[in-house]
Sequence to fold (616 residues):
Amino acid sequence: MSPTTSSPAITASGLRKCFGDKVVLDGIDLSVAEGTVFSLLGPNGAGKTTTVHILSTLMRADGGEARVMGRDPARDPDAVRAVIGVTGQFSAVDGLLTGRENLQLMADLRHLPRAEGRRRAAELLAEFELADAADKRAATYSGGMRRRLDLAMTLVGDPRVIFLDEPTTGLDPRSRRTMWQIVRSLVGRGVTIFLTTQYLDEADELADRIAVLDQGRIVATGTPAELKRRVPGGHVRLQFADAAALTAAERLLDGAARGDGLSLNVPGDAGIHALRALLTRLDDAGIEAETLSVHTPDLDDVFFALTGRPAADTASADHNTSTNDAAPTNNTAPTNNTAPTSNENASEQKESVR
Amino acid sequence: MSTLTYTARDSATMLKRNLRYSVRYPVTIIVALAIPALLLLLFVGVFGGALGAGLGAAPPGGKYIDYVVPGILLMSIGYGASSTTLAVNRDMTEGIIARFRTMAISRSSVLTGHVVAALIRTVASCVLLIGVALLMGYRSSADAGRWLAAAGLVALLAFALSWLAVAIGLAAPTAEGTSGFTLIVQLLPFISSAFVPTGTMSGPVRWFAHNQPFTPVIDTLRGLLTGTPIGHSGIIAVAWCVGLAVLGYFWAGALFRKGAVR
Fold:
């Protein structure tokens, strides 16, 4: 699907930004291929929003170069603005206008012909499940609806590149899922998405590539799988009915370590082949395990491994303890797990900072 | 299309958006009309007898309402400017201005839309206010030319205060932050020649009242509408308006370009 020969949709090299004495971005390099989702992941204050502001022409960098679809945000901002759409951290909708009017306002500002603007507004209202509330004032919308309207407004001009700055912060789980589906459908149309998030599972879920941002520096980049591979901690946990089976298994499996109760942690990846091999070995030895669960390292582990700190900031002391034991996710079936969130609470507390 | 047509088109879009508020939520116009109308009632009906009798420089005909109407018009302009400040500030804090700034639209259109809408609102409330005054017995000796000149000066002051209001709306971090401006524009008419001649005031107050921008505007309006001498007030009034407009325009422009991103 994604174009192979074209130049990247977004590039940045050596981006720097200071606010007074405080260095917010300390030399950011990145490259985003067209038609992919790129996620900038980091805790609050890491510089995510500043990066978006620079790339989307809201702010000038103090140093470094950037290109968005080959255009320079600093020297030719209007050319960049013509191809981007931005959905910021806070819903930038006009609360006193209705949903439809908000969309028509965007159509007018994109200089679409009147009839086409009206058609596009109706189309987006339907697509974003806002048709029923189209003629109600946006101020009466729920958080999820406002966010959807905000994103719909961003899409009016069919931008080639969309910046989503923490698009699901503060949304309930169901609205988050809806947002995710919308993002996926956008990528399907060939749009490039630059997503910032402090939710690790969100980047894992959506991004083709992730850059981990910490205190104004990118500390790692790669696909979600690549990042996870850099982190130890993947294992299979076996639960036994009695101590005899446990001891036998322990003797059989190298490197296995006893866990809580009658359980055994077997390090290694949790692919189907490895699991099948493991089960076969147990069968051959006549050892019966009661249950089996797979622990994949998630991005929380990645962050900890890369920065030596938990993702949500060292300041939140209560999170420190949870990083090690709660973060790896437990599924009692040997399938690949779809990361439920243990990091949600920790991230949630930090939301109001900006 | 050329840049100029885009500027005009975007400004028209923004104007439409702002006027839509005024039509849908007429409270801003009502406030700019009702409060001055109430004050008119208060000053003419309650204090008018005593104040009118005490006026050293009573206008020809001596009716206090003829004296006080120009000052009341200025109060209406002041209320109009306060609501403009709030509207701009709401745009800023709601983040919609940040959205506009990421779009390829004429930079000036956002602010121009606010100013032109404010101008239309203010002129509308001033016309209505004149209607109320006429019902209460206000009579002007002015011919059409003088009325036109008076309307022009009202519009000029409204224009100047609107630009200032836009700048303050952009600068204020919250809606509460605009209250200083609101207080000033609503208080200035009281320490001016709106209700009593500045000559009757005591020392420093008189000096302030005499030299603040509203007084020459009021004196000029009064001169145009009731035939009292204008003197240098006309020039000074226009100079103040132009000065405030230029200050507001460049301040607002600088704030918008700098783009206090919140």
